[in-house]
Amino acid sequence: MIAQPASNGIPEYADPSSLPAHVGIIMDGNGRWATRNGLPRSMGHERGVDALRETVRAAQKLGLSYLTVYSFSTENWRRPMAEVTALFALLRHFIKKDLKRLKSENVKISVFGTRAGLPEDVCSLLDMAVEETAGNSRFNLGIAFNYGGREEIARAAKQVAEKVATGEMAIEDFTEEAISRHLDTHPFPDPDMIIRTGQEHRLSNFLTWQGAYAELVFMDVLWPEFGEPQLREALEKFGARERRFGGLGKEAG
Ligand code: FPP
C-alpha cells in the first residue's frame, strides 16, 4: 500500500526502497479524450496541462524526487501545424502561469531535447524556466520538449567523439558512462519506472537509453483523466515488481 503522508507532509512508506526516485511519463490520450467529449483536440491538450499540474503536485506529495514528462516529441512535427502551434502556445502559457509557483515550491526545472525548429520565444521561455529554478533542489521536473531518444543519443555520442578527436578524451574513455554523462538528462538518475497512459504499449522514443531497466507501467486511462489516484496506482504496481537488473530473482533460491 502507498501510505498517506504523515502530518509533516513526508510520506510514510512501509518500505521506502520500493519508491522510485525517478518516474517518466508518456502523457498519451489527450486527443481521444477530447474527441470522446465532443471537443477539439487542442482542448484535450489543455486538459492535459491540468493533469500535469496535478501530477507534479502528487509526485511531490508522495515523495518522488524526479519526474520527467514527454511533452512534445521530435515526431510530433508530423501533426497538423495548427496542433503543433497549439502545443507551443500551451507551453508558453504553462511557463508564464506556473513558473512563479514552481519556483516558490523549490522545484528545479530541466529541459530535455533539441532546440532545432523551435520558435525563438519558446527557446527563451525554456531557458528562463531552467535559469530561474537552477538553485532549487526539493523536486526535479524534467520537461522533454522537442525530444527524441535516438536524437539525444546521437548528439551525446557526437559530443564524446568530438572530445576524442580533439584529444580532450582518450578513445578508451568512450564508454557507456561517458555517453550517459553527455545526455540531456544528466545528472538525473535513470528512470526506475516509465508510465504510459492511453492504452498504447510502446515507448515511442522516450528515454531510450536511460529507460533500459525501467519498469514499464501501461495504463488504460487517458492522460487528461490522470491524477494522484492514478499515480498511486502506478506506484503500487512498481512496489510489487521484482527488479533484477539482469541478476537472479528471489525464486532462483
Ligand atoms: C499525446 O496525446 C500528448 C501529446 C502529444 C502532448 C502532451 C502534452 C501535454 C500534456 C500538454 C503540454 C505540456 C506542457 C508542458 C505545456 P495525443 O494527442 O497523442 O492523444 P491521442 O493519442 O488520443 O490522439
Work out the count of structural domains: 1
CATH topology name = Undecaprenyl pyrophosphate synthetase
Alpha-beta classification: alpha/beta
The named CATH superfamily: Decaprenyl diphosphate synthase-like
* Multimerization state: single chain
Distance between the termini: 26 Å
What ligands are attached or bound here? farnesyl diphosphate
Helical element count?
A: 7
Radius of gyration: 19 Å
CATH architecture: 3-Layer(aba) Sandwich
Tell me about the largest β-sheet. 6 strands, parallel
Strand content: 5-15%
User: Could you spell the SSE succession in H and E letters?
Assistant: EHHEHEHEHHEEH
Task: Specify the overall morphology.
Answer: globular
EC number: 2.5.1.-
GO molecular function: ditrans,polycis-undecaprenyl-diphosphate synthase [(2E,6E)-farnesyl-diphosphate specific] activity; magnesium ion binding
Keywords: Magnesium, Metal-binding, Transferase
Organism: Henriciella barbarensis
If you had to describe this structure to a student in words, what would you say it looks like?
This protein is 41% helix and 14% strand. It has a single domain (19-212, 223-236), classed as Undecaprenyl pyrophosphate synthetase (3-Layer(aba) Sandwich). The chain has 253 residues and is of the alpha/beta class. The protein has 7 helices and 6 strands; from the N terminus they run βααβαβαβααββα. α1 (30-36) packs across α2 and α2 packs parallel to α3. Mean pLDDT is 93; it is low at 5-10. A 6-stranded parallel sheet has the order 3-4-2-1-5-6, with helices on both faces. The longest helix has 24 residues, at 81-104. Farnesyl diphosphate (FPP) is lined by residues 27-32, 45, 48-49, 52, 71, 76, 87, 90-91, 94, 143, 198, 223.
